[in-house]
Design goal:
The complex is a heterodimer of chains A (about 110) and B (about 110). Chain A is mainly β and about 110 residues long. Helices cover about 0% and strands about 55% of the residues of chain A. Chain A has no helices and 11 strands. In chain A, strands 2, 4, 5, 9, 10 and 11 form a 6-stranded mixed beta sheet that branches. A 5-stranded antiparallel beta sheet of chain A has the order 1-3-8-7-6, with no helix packed on it. In chain A, β4 and β5 form a beta hairpin. Chain A starts with a strand and ends with a strand. In chain B, the strands form 2 sheets. In chain B, strands 2, 4, 5, 6, 9, 10 and 11 form a 7-stranded mixed beta sheet that branches. A 4-stranded antiparallel beta sheet of chain B has the order 1-3-8-7, with no helix packed on it. In chain B, a hairpin with a 6-residue loop joins β7 and β8. Chain B is built from no helices and 11 strands. Classes of the chains: A mainly beta (about 110), B mainly beta (about 110). The interface of A and B includes residues 46 and 49 of A.
């Protein structure tokens, strides 16, 4: 299933700087997009989401941008903190069924 | 904060044996899901369940798999005759009226030997 792609398997960023995670999708029927964070031995934890009718949603340090014409979304985390080190999954919903990307491992350096 | 509880956290079983993975969704949630993640691969949708029946299932969810809500609180995934390739983390999730608000459990690591 290649409907949702996260092409960067890892990202290293200095504490206090911006983390930008990218996600591309192919299915134009997706109507909702979500970002999840996952620590080892835990389930995915919901971070932030965006409806397909919007292009930006912000929640504290997290902002998600959606470019429907490019079928691309991104997650910005600013400022990055050591506790942000985790795997981040992009997910897209069609009829409430989620398709996940492969994940990006973020490491925040002190 | 309400959470989805999964038991056991780790299950080892012999190939060909039946396993039941258990989940207690958030109490006022209406929609229930199973996902799995094979080591090194993506999280994959298996099945969704609403109003005591399967609402959607993936091609992975073949006749070996079944789900049940035996009482008002538990949601189970049964694998009838396990295969080596069933080894994975299995995540249960639930959501309420705002259906995009999935809450995932911590997962059950199933190892088939």
């Amino acid at each position: 299933d290649q409907q949702v792609k996260q092409n960067s398997p890892s990202l290293s960023v200095q504490e206090g700087r911006i983390s930008i995670l990218n996600c591309d999708y192919t299915n134009s029927m997706f109507d909702y997009f979500l970002w999840y964070k996952k620590y080892p031995a835990e389930g995915p934890t919901f971070l932030i989401s965006i409806s397909s009718i919007k292009d930006k949603n912000e929640d504290g340090r997290f902002t998600v941008f959606l470019n429907k014409s490019a079928k691309h979304l991104s997650l910005h985390i600013v400022p990055s903190q050591p506790g942000d080190s985790a795997v981040y999954f992009c997910a897209a919903s069609e009829n409430y069924k989620l398709s996940f990307g492969a994940g990006t491992t973020v490491t925040v350096r002190a | 904060e309400p959470e989805v509880t999964q038991t056991p956290s780790h299950q080892v079983t012999q190939m060909g044996q039946e396993v039941i993975l258990r989940c207690v969704p958030i109490s006022n949630h209406l929609y229930f899901y199973w996902y799995r993640q094979i080591l090194g691969q993506k999280v994959e949708f298996l099945v969704s369940f609403y109003n005591n029946e399967i609402s959607e299932k993936s091609e992975i969810f073949d006749d070996q798999f079944s789900v049940e809500r035996p009482d008002g609180s538990n949601f189970t995934l049964k694998i009838r005759s396990t295969k080596l390739e069933d080894s994975a983390m299995y995540f249960c999730a639930s959501s309420g009226e705002g259906r995009y608000g999935y809450t995932f459990g911590s997962g059950t690591r199933l190892t088939v030997v």
